[in-house]
Amino acid sequence: MHVVILAEFATASGGAEKVAVESARGLAEAGARVTFIQAVDGPADALLDHPGIGRVPLSLPDVWSLPAWRGAVAGIWNGEAARRLTAALAALPEPADCLHLHQWSRAFSPAVLPVLLAQSAPLVLTLHDYFLACPNGVFYRFDQGAPCSLEPMSARCLAAPCDPKSRLHKAVRVGRAAALRVAAGRDRLDVIHVSDASLARMAGMLAGRALRHHRIDNPVRVAPGAPAEPERGDAVAYVGRLTAEKGADLVAEAARRAGLPALFIGAGPLDDALRAQGAEVIGWRSPSEVGEILRSRARAVCAPSRWYETGPLTIYEALAQGIPAIASNRSGAAEKVRHGETGLVVAPEAEALAEAFRTLKDDSLVARLGRAAHAAYWQAPPTLAAHAQALLGLYGGLTDEAAHHHGDRAGHSNGEPVVAAMR
Fold first, then answer.
1. pLDDT for 92-143, tens place per residue?
2. CA atoms within 13 A on the CB side of 300
3. Domains of the chain with CATH codes
């Protein structure tokens, strides 16, 4: 099977890119032929260095690197992206059996959807966020610091000053969301959700659209090994971009109240504020370095998202190493945490988190949570191999269906979830 994976970057700098790169590697190791089409110029992750993976850069600019007006136009509808993608697909040495799009908000734009839907191969989208429904992509009111309760693209949504940057940026994002609806047209789309919570929430938001919903976990690239000894750690750790919607400030405040050190691995707009609160911020590290740091320092890993994060990988990676996880009850990853057994599920509020952190002072409790986390995770780990097999099962079903219908992918869907489960 020849699979074409499309992502805007070829490095694992964020969750969507990380999954795109790792799934490409997993598919290649499973025997699939993979073409990885990256929109933006830049380095490629070493995972893409495999004889079964071909890489095609389109050399498009990131819209955030363009002058304001050009970035706005390209963000809404990038005709050049459509032209270059059309040429790249036509030049492939063999036709694609399946197309898998991971991102379209930074360079591709909605303009690539008609190109992909015109191909004879079925198209799959992984929904790492809420851009298919919500203009700002995270279904979050940055003006209120709380999840959104409005119907996406309703009159109240259009008027809400919810964008993290400005009303002008909101207008551009609304234009992109409208263009996306037009680009998708009446064609049926097969979409993958990475958590049960995301599936339930997005299926409701997208009711009435011609979609079929599938459920496959993100891959987690942690090698099997002995569990960590988190009771020897000294800090509560946070891994990822340091922003308010991801709750980085909550970790610092809760740790201060609980009398525990806070360790931040990552960077972002809250860098200086976190350091001012006495937190240790060490910047980005390679995946191997992150693993070593967590195993030596972390009593727990905390992901206290204020937004409805679809499935933060840091929770899965902590559990895989035998480190207790503290997840926001708004996060899709919370469904992987057994409260009081492998970690804690807590509201993203400073005092609730502080109370959870206070319990981490008990070495015996931390040790018990860590051992149980490791044992539970490795009963059915979402490895690259398992992820690849789930994808190949989905691709195979879609290609068989396309062949049965003589390549006609247009049709009606009742929007009911179809579960391709790898939980």
1. 999 999 999 999 999 999 999 999 999 999 999 999 999 999 999 999 999 9
2. 33
3. 2-128+186-219+385-404 (3.40.50.2000), 230-377 (3.40.50.2000)
